[in-house]
Amino acid sequence: MFTKIKNNLNSFLERKVPEKRLFLRTDKETRFVKLTPITQILALIGISTVIIWSIIATAIVLIETIGSGNFRDQARRDQALYEERLNALATERDIRERESIASQDRFNTALSQVSIMQSDLLGSEDMRRELERGINVIHGTLRRAMNEREALRIELELLKKQLNPEIGVLPNAISLAEVSQTMEYMNHTLRGISQQRDNAFDAAELAKKNMESLELEIQFFEEKSDQIFRQLEDALTISVEPLDKMFRNVGLSTKRLLDQVRRGYSGQGGALAPILSQTDVFETEDPRISRANSILIKLDKLNIYRIAVEKTPFDMPVKGSFRYTSGFGPRWGQMHRGVDLAAKSRSPIYATGDGVVTQAGWNGGYGRVVYIKHEFGVETRYAHLARIRVKKGQRVSRGQKIGDMGNSGRSTGTHLHYEVRVGGKAVNPMIFIKAGRDVF
Predict the structure, then answer these.
(1) CA–CA distance, 111 with 69 (Å, rounded to integer)
(2) Can you spell out the DSSP letters for 335-402?
(3) What is the chain's mean pLDDT, rounded?
(4) Among 383, 342, 347, which Cα is nearest to 366's?
(5) Interhelix angle for 429-439 vs 37-162, to 10°?
(6) C-alpha distances in angstroms, 55 versus 58, 61, 69?
């Protein structure tokens, strides 16, 4: 049955594909192989399949090669852009820090001037009160003197009426010369009192003008200090909030972090003391002192964050061109507790934060490995190194070269295996890298 179908099919196809014979000749005999239409078609299909598969495979290889080159170029460009942005933001951070310190100095100077002017104003106010009391006393004395003069004038008139023109003496034997002398003394006293009153009025007017001038100067310094306050508050808000977010994103408690840095750096760039107590100078609460102390608290927080950033691994362990070859998570049925970064052999490897080297040597599948213990319970590991450039117990800084990229231990190619552990538990290093990249 199958042979009959085959023959019928060959007869049908023979019109399009004639039967061919392939002759094989040797020294002794000649043989031939008959190629039926079905055989020719199957051979043509097989050859076509091989050619098409070769074309597709070649295209896939070319596409992967081009894509890999483009990925490396893109990674190189991204790395250069990241480093440029990191340097620019670090410079901007330093500028903002210097501006904050300069603004704080200007604010302290302005506050001192305001305090001096307020003391002068209080002194002028006391002087004004003394002058007012003096003027009141002078007014009382003047009124008493005028009353006495009026009484003397009335008494003089009575004496004149009682004067005996025939004998030229008063009935009480009081001479007219004595009365005139008394009147002259009273007039002299009244003129002196009037002069004192005029001088007191002039002094009071001068004190009033000085007080008005001091009030204007105090108003000017208050406006200037308010402007400085606003600039400081805006700058601190812009600087502190991203750092808060960065530490929260990597799962670190900002409160515990701040407390730990304060304990470790007391007297060495740590907390800034308040300017002064509100009751030290003023009897009532001064809102400017509260505002200044609030700014100092934020400056202290920014200063502590600056110290904490240096000690937390937010940096990249590889600075040059590289590519990510494996991420954090399950891989080949096992947990991959870090990220793999591939670059050319002997590429420099850098510490991602300040810390102390706790291990530097060979460690089984890790090969040549470096462990660095950072603050806040954070540890970083750098595995498969070709060479180690630090020793156990050595203190290292962020950006310091600690080794060369290699292929030691259980590794299938030149790369760096980079781990971050918090409290002994492995976490995704990209959380720290991305958090640092978002801020710096």
Answers:
(1) 62
(2) EE-SEEEE-STT-EEE-SSSEEEEEEEE-GGG-EEEEEE-STTEEEEEEEEEEE---TT-EE-TT-EE
(3) 76
(4) 383
(5) 50
(6) 5, 10, 21
Per-residue tokens: 5: 């179908």
Please tell me what DSSP assigns to residue 414.
S
Q: What is the mean pLDDT of residues 214-239?
A: 69
Predicted confidence band at 13 (pLDDT cuts at 50, 70, 90)? low
For residues 50-59, average pLDDT: 87
CB-based contact 383:359 (threshold 8 Å): no
Strand pairing report for 368-373 and 378-388: antiparallel
pLDDT of residue 102 exceeding 50, the answer is: yes
Give the span between the Cα atoms of 15 and 37, in whole angstroms: 9
Give percent above pLDDT 90 in the chain.
19
| Maximum alpha-carbon separation in the chain | 203
Residue among 78, 89, 65, 87 nearest 321 (CA):
78
HSE-CB of 178 using CA atoms within 13 angstroms:
7
How confident is the model at residue 406, as a pLDDT? 95
Compute the half-sphere exposure of residue 321: CA atoms within 13 Å on the CB side of its CA: 10
Torsion-angle region of residue 329: left (phi > 0), alpha (psi -120 to 50) or beta? Answer: left
Q: What is the pLDDT of residues 287-339, one digit of tens each?
A: 767 777 777 777 777 777 777 777 888 889 998 889 999 999 887 778 999 99
Q: Which domains does the chain have, with CATH numbers?
A: 99-311 (1.10.287), 318-328+336-439 (2.70.70.10)
β pairing state of 425-427 and 416-422: antiparallel
